[in-house]
Predict the structure.
Amino acid sequence: QVDAVRVYVNSSSENLQYPVLFVVRQQKGVLSWQVPLIFRGLYQRTYNYQEVSRTLCPSEPTPEAGLSDQVIFVDVASMAPFDIAYELLVTRLDNFQLETNKAFNFTASPSQPQYFLYKFPQDVDSVIIKVVSDAVYPCSVVSVQDIVCPVYDLDHNVEFNGVYQSMTKQVAITVQKKDFPGEQFFVVFVIKPEDYACGGSVPSSISGSSNRTWNLQRTKNLQVTIVPSIKKSVYVQAMFFSFLSFLSFYLGSVIVAFVHYIRLTGSYGSASIAGSGIMTSSHPITASTPEGSSYGAIDESSSSGGRQLSSPEHGLQAGSDTDSSVEEESDFDTMPEIESDKNVIRTKVFLYLSDLSRKDRRIVSKKYKIYFWNIITIAVFYALPVIQLVITYQTVVNVTGNQDICYYNFLCAHPLGVLSAFNNILSNVGHMLLGFLFLLIVLRRDILHRRAMEMKDIYTLDYGIPKHFGLFYAMGIALMMEGVLSACYHVCPNYSNFQFDTSFMYMIAGLCMLKLYQTRHPDINASAYSAYASFAVVICLAVLGVVFGKNDMWFWVIFSMIHVLASLALSTQIYYMGRFKIDAPDSDLGIFRRAAMVLYTDCIQQCSRPMYMDRMVLLIVGNLVNWSFAIFGLVYRPRDFASYILGIFICNLLLYLAFYIIMKLRSSEKLLPIPLFCIVATAVMWAAALYFFFQNLSSWEETPAESREKNRPCILLGFFDDHDVWHFLSAAALFFSFLVLLTLDDDLDTVRRDKIPVF
């Protein structure tokens, strides 16, 4: 048993010019202080304490010397020209050594810090120090220091050594035996003279503070409990669980693909598979449709303008899908028939897919592949600095011991190697594994489609949704990068790197909306350059919102105006299929007259019966939703601006997907079993994932001490917390969401494009 001695001193003198000096000399060190003891706060405020109590550095008996008396010298001095009364009391501590799984209660103040000794049991390699208090303030600091004298137990030096956290109501510090060669350490408790470091208010006036006694005003009751942490076997179980859970998706995909292959080969014999649709080897399957159902669509011969590649005599072999550099995006609209009639076609009342899939398939596919190559470039240039930055953050945490830098859930933060919260990083493996699986599924469809192209002259066929896989590849890469960057963010989550966790979520939501729109508008979808530029603007707004959005009203006014105007501009482009233009006027005021005329004829006169009713309904509902978001942001100014923007993206995506499915069913189209299953799985996964997402376990918008008030224990395998479960479920939800977009229109592979409506 280690003996410890505590020295208590008190002096009635408040004369700061002549303090009483106390010096305690021991065998291995010297400890000194003065009374009144002065603490300095923010803006040079001073706080004086006349009662001081310090624990002397204990001496542990050695086996060689055995039990022996320890000699302590206490010197008291003052330069005052008059007598000063003081009180000195030396006591022996009976409860200096903390025990495992046993709570211990005590009281501390700024001038009376406390520290205790803990020794690792033989069978314990890691422990968690849990400290709780019923009171939020005064602000305190909990430090773990090696057995070295002197012990740093005052406000101005507690951060000089060891690992430390600021505290309001609770703290949890994980300590590993390997970090302490002596297999023991001190747990130090210091009360700060001010509360601003923990989110408290700063005194507005310093009047009288220099002569005020603070002895009884800043005491805090604390309870400390040291419990064993998880064993290494739990790490192994958690890693097996993480990988096997998502590798089961690979097994399920293989089974589905095999069953699908057996069913198709058994049913159709000589049928060839193009994507997921079936076409006979002799002639394309024709869909029987009632006469007149293709009202508004151009004749097949004219709606196939630009298909000079339908036979070998026109240059390239049918099915050649080369990426040769002769075709450029600038060639898209150079074909005379498209240039002459696209304004007429796209403004018809009833549009069919054949009207918006008139461009050369090879060139359009090449256009959408730019999405894939661009997102790889963005990912590399974005990820490398991110990885370098978070490695630096983690190194700073490990070297300085300042655990206020990173906002972990400390009650469920399991270290591994140099990483402080390995569980938060491991839980992101699902995004990477499922993103790669989605790429494999898309690659399989792409290969089967290319083989079908090589087998027959499919350029003469007008069946099903045009197969362009570039956006799907980009979505798969985005899902993998979301896992990588989310893992990087959780290496050290804080105010400076929050955008790492959300940037690719914005891109995923945007790419899904673009893919959904591209399905029936392949010729007029946004280019990769404009799409990624728009995502960059959104990410910039997210950063500005976090920096300025808390208290600055001007930012919310500007952002709301941008939001509303962007919604109106995008709605106009969607409603007119990109053909809305205001002709150049002859005079300066002509543009305003032209705009007023367009507004009157296209909006006011057609309010009772718009030319494109379905599109108008979607855009009205969409604008109401976006305006509601803008008004909500303007009124309430939510603190989590990044999640606010992400909510806007997700709501718009869900609204568009719901509209698409409703219009699909209205058009007498079917939902096959696989997309129907994916829709149900997506809804279930998102509902469960969002439940865990809103279980806030930390918040970098608050001080580290306030954030730790939200910390909670692990809920899965004793290793993963609520946010880790959100990572697992959201990865599965995104994967099923992608499968919905991939398989939603598989029922149309045997339907002619001039019978597929556009909405």
The mean pLDDT is 80. The two ends are 80 Å apart (CA to CA). Residues 361-400 form the longest helix (40 residues). The CA atoms of residues 239 and 704 lie 29 Å apart.
